[in-house]
Structures are given as C-alpha cells and as structure tokens.
Amino acid sequence: MVQKKVLLVDDQRFALQLLRDVLVPSGFLMEEARDGREAFRKALDFQPDIILMDMIMPDLDGVEVCRMLKNDRRTSAIPVIVITASKNKENLVEAFEAGADDYITKPFSSHELRARILSNIIKGEAVRLLEQKARDSEALLEISQAVNSTLDTDEIMRLIVNRIAEHIPVNRCSITGIDDVNGCGYVLASSDVPAINSFRIDLKRYPEIREVIRTGQSLIVENMKTHPLMEEVRDAVMSLDFNTLLVLPVIYHKEVIGTLVLRTLRDKNAFTPRELKFCQLVANVSAVALKNARLFERAREESNELREVKEQLERELREKEVFETLFAHASEGLIVLNVLGEPEYINDSALQILGTTRDVAMNAIFADFLAEDNCAEALENHINFFLGKEYRSRLDLRVKSPDGGTRWVSISISSHRLGGEFAIISLNDVTEERMNRRHVEECNARLQELGRLKSEFINIATHELRTPVTILQSYCQLLEEETCDLSADQQRYLDGISETCVRLSTLITQMLDIGKLEAVSSELQLRKARIDEPIDEVIASLKPLAAMKKQSIVVDRLPVGVMADFDRDTIVHLLTNLLDNAIKFTPDGGEIRLSIGASNGCVLVTVADTGIGIPEKYRKRVFDEFWRVRDGELAQHGAGLGLAICKKIIDAHNGRIWVDSATGKGCRITFSLPSS
Fold first, then answer.
1. Cα end-to-end span (Å), the chain
2. C-alpha angle with apex 675: 670 to 676, nearest 5 degrees?
C-alpha cells in the first residue's frame, strides 16, 4: 500500500514532535514546516495527501496560509486540518471561510487525530476522483461532439491526440490507421508533430502494433528495453527517451482498423485503471472518425485512378465529335491544325478572335488569317513543330481584321502532338494589352525625359547661381574685414546677407550633389575596406565642432574591424551629413554615439544623438528631397536635402537606411552596407 504523505506545520518544535509521535505508528510519510511561508513552499514540492497546520503562527498565520493553498490550483485539492487551542468560534469560522476542511482542538487524543486524518484523506481522494471523472467526461464529450459535428477527419484526429496528451502526462500520443493489404500503417495525427498527415510506416518495425492487430486487445509494454515482444527492434529502442508503451485497438464492426499509441517515461504500473479506461473510451469514440479517414483515403486513391484513366482517354480521343465537344466550350480560342496548316477543328472563341465564320475557316489555311509580315515566321515554326525541331511554344502574331486593320493575337502551341498528326494551338486576343503596354512605355520614356530635363535644369541653375553667390559672399567678407565704421543696423544687414549667402552656397552644393548622385550607381568605386576608417576620418574633421558645444562623441566597435563593400568618398559624404546633423540637433553637453555591427551579411552603422528627436508623424518623410520639420523648436534651417542625399548614396550601394526617434528622446539613424 502506498504511504500517505502528511505535512506538519507548527512554529513550536515540541508540538511537531508530539504530532510525529502520534502519527509514526500509523506509517505516514511526514514532512515538517516551522512557519507559514515554509509550509506553502513544502506543500508545492512535497504534494502531501493532507496538511496539519497550527492556526496561530508568526508572520503568516494558519488562516492566511490556508487561503494561499486553496487559491493555488497546484495545492487547492489538498485537505487542510487546522489545529487550535482557541475556543473562539469566530476564529474557526474564519478558518473555514479560508478553505480549511476540518479542525481539531488542543489537547487532542491520538485516536481522534488519526481518525480525522484518515477521513479527510478519504474525502479528498473521493473529491479528486470525482473531479477527474468530470474532466474525463468533459474531454470525451468534446471529442464526441467533434466527431459528430465535422467531416474534417484530420482535425478530429489532431483533437483526439492533443486532448489525450493534455489529459494524461505522456511524451507522445498518436493515432495510426492500418492498411492490411499493403502491410503498412499511416500515422494520421501525433501530439508532438502537429503537421504530420498520413505518414506511412512499415509495420515490420512495430511489433507492438502487430500484436494488438493480432489479438484485438490492449497492450502495455512497461519496459521496452527488456520486454520479449520488442526483441526484434531492441537496438532501435535503446536510445529512445521513453520506456513504456500503451497500445489500444481502434475497432470498427469487430475489425481492428487502427491503433491509439501512448508513449511515456514511467516506472512499473505506468498507467492507472482510470487512464486505461479513459483511453479505451477515446479509442472507441475515434473508431468512426478513423473509418471515415480510411474511406476518404480510399476515395482519394480511386479518384486519382479515375483521373489517370480520364487523362488517358482524352489522349486517345481522335474522333471529330469528341474534339468538337471538348473545344466548343473553352473560353479561349482553340484550333487543331494538320501538318498542312489546315484547321481540322475550331471552336467559337477562335472564330470570334479571327473574325470569320466556320465555313470560311474550314476551307482555308491558318496562314490566310495572318498579316503578310507574320506568315513566314508562323510557317517556319509550324514546320519545325512537325519535324521535331526546336520551335517556339508561344509567339505573338498579327491577324487581319474584317475592317482591314490588324489585331495582336497570342498563340500557344501544345507540346503534345495529337496522334502524331495534329497540333493544338490556343489563341488569345492581346491587342488591348499591347496598346496599354505601348502607352506605358511611352509614359515611362516621357517621365525619364522629364527627369533628365529637370536634372539638367537644376545643374544649369545651380552652376549659374554659384558665381553670383560666391561674389556676394566675398564682398561681404571684404566689408567685414574693412576698418570702416558701420552702424548697428548696417552691421545687422551685413550679417544677414552673409548668413543668407552661406545658406545659398550650402543649398547649391547639395543640389549639385543630388545631380551627381542621379547616376552615382554606375560611377561608384566599390572596394572592400574597414568601415571604421572613414568613420574615424569624419569624426576627426567634426570633433572640433562638437567640442565647441562640449559634446562627446563615442564609438562602439566590434573586436575586429568590420569589412564592407563601399565607395569611400560617398560614404565619407554620408557620414559627414549624419554626424553634422547629430551635432546640430544635440544640446550643449550631450552625447553622440556611433555603433558598428554586423547582421545577415551586412554591416550596420548607427549614429545616435541625445537631441530633441523627430516626431513619429514626420519619420516617413525625413528622406524626402526639400522636406524639413517646421514645427516650433523642431524647425530646421536649410533646404532639406542632407538626408535625401544620404538615402541616394545608400540606395546606390544596395543598402538600407532608416530612422528610430521620438520627440525629446534623441534620434537614431542606421544604415546597412553589403559585406560581401
């Protein structure tokens, strides 16, 4: 008989020893706890059959511990007897409200204590048994409803194995259908492989399944490594992570049509009578679904056979009436031509495409309907087809229209030569498609021309603007260097002109850069090099600018220099733009961090600042040309070309660039470059 486990909870060592002395003769397996928290932990680990707990304890009293135990599904079913010396009824009521199952007052007799313990253990086991039966019934009801409510046998099989695996702790539960004719089985569902579907197995490798088929009785193999039945497959089972098998027959009209197999790692008496009964009931319920699966598989095989017979008949059909029936209802034009190019059969769709009648078509050759400049090509292709030479299976030809014009028709030639004497061709009118394609090509050409003119205009305009702006800037510098006295207003006007000249000069330079980048992909000088070299170069050039704002620039590097394929000059330009922006939008004393990494065959470089950030609503537009933020403190000066140039550079390198930012939380711009 299995020893019953008792958890003793009391903060007094003498009380614990007294309980032990009373219970030792009864053969209980006991564990002790000196306070409420230890009691809860040991209840989880020890999983006792009953808990004897003093009501009055420091920190957590017995009532609170009882409430914790009953509110946890892992311990809620364990009976709790509170032990108290108090005669206060309110304390006992509070204990029962917390979930206590019984109580005993101090002092108590040993006979009463043992009687209370045994009665509560029996009561708890009865409650657990009833709850387990209820769960069994609920699972069986769900499976039965699924069998009767859906025709999807795959779904039913998966539901069955999953419910069993959830209900009974096993490594794997599977359902196998039996094919007596071929001596094989098909795994229809398995709890550990959701996607399995009719996986074929050789029954010679499964003696346990063969034995169940032979006897029609359930089989338990408690130790696969020593059981005589498994002798022939001993080597295969030695490395498995389970040692116990339960195989149940699925019987339909006294015939074993499949098996329900449970695999687990347990000691002797692995499956309880309740589990065996539950699994057998599930096997009985699944018989109809398994039979339906067999019928469906057989129907599918017969359907495949019928399909093959039908295809064979269609290949052998040569009579005129059969072809006419076959072709007449096709939505596309179909014609059967003999070796001379004469139509043997033609459907209504083909007549409509060719713009002719059946009488005319049957007394002509196919070339009569083609434009003159297509006849030679079509005739050569037709001859090559019948000579077994290389031919075009699809070509577009122009056919004559009744109004004197032409239409484009797409011709497809079947690779199958009907009876060795006929060619089957299909026709589709693609005139409108051709017109649309030509229109799109013309529009694309026009757009390219407009793009070229735009770039040319921008280049000319910016070149023409550069000289006067440079002159203005020089005059301003001369005036500032002169010793002549200027009034405050004059000095302010001069400063405004100088600042405007600088902005115009920057704008002109950026617009010229964009013009150069229109064809940058064909001019890049890609070389494999360490990406941190141009990074160090740019940092060295911009570090004084950061120092003026008391900003720190930090670089996170990989242990070894990261190599990438890039054009050094354009990447230096890109990094200069990004780092200059970070310095500009980071407040005094802030930090700018450059990170270098690698992922999925690419080098990643991130420039992160602690500036004002970019609102989410603007993030998708930051790489657009001539766009910039204009909201309050986020407003930007300049032409809005810096990040647009950066994107063009990265696109030319076949990389990606993106931004992560939020208002007030800084900005992170990351770009990737191919590393091989």
1. 71
2. 155
- Could you give the CA distance from residue 67 to residue 52 in angstroms, rounded to a whole number? 14
Please state the domain extents for the chain: 5-132, 150-299, 321-429, 436-517, 522-674
Alpha-carbon gap, residue 47 to 380, rounded angstroms = 89
Tokens standing for residue 29: 């397996």
Q: Which fold has domain 321-429?
A: Beta-Lactamase (3.30.450)
What local confidence, expressed as pLDDT, does residue 509 receive? Answer: 64
Distance from C-alpha of 451 to C-alpha of 288, rounded to nearest angstrom: 71
- For residue 638, pLDDT over 50 is answered with no
User: Is beta strand 333-337 parallel, antiparallel or unpaired with respect to 423-429?
Assistant: antiparallel
Question: For 70-102, b where at least 16 C-beta lie within 10 A, e where not — what string?
Answer: beeeebeebbbbbbbeeeeeebbebbeebbbbb
Q: pLDDT tens digits, residue range 578-620?
A: 988 888 888 899 999 999 888 888 899 999 998 888 877 777 7
- Per DSSP, 312 falls in state H
DSSP, collapsed to helix, strand or coil, labels residue 177 as strand
Indicate if the pLDDT at residue 469 is higher than 70: no
For 664: left if phi > 0, alpha if psi spans -120 to 50, otherwise beta; the answer is left
Instruction: Report the alpha-carbon distance of residue 464 to residue 459 in Å, rounded.
Output: 8
* pLDDT exceeds cutoff 90 at 633: no
Q: Do domains 150-299 and 321-429 have the same CATH topology?
A: yes
**How far is Cα 388 from Cα 390, in angstroms, rounded to an integer?**
7
pTM of the model: 0.36
With vertex at residue 372, the alpha carbon angle to CA 368 and CA 374, rounded to the nearest 5 degrees, is 95
Could you name the CATH architecture of 522-674? 2-Layer Sandwich (3.30)
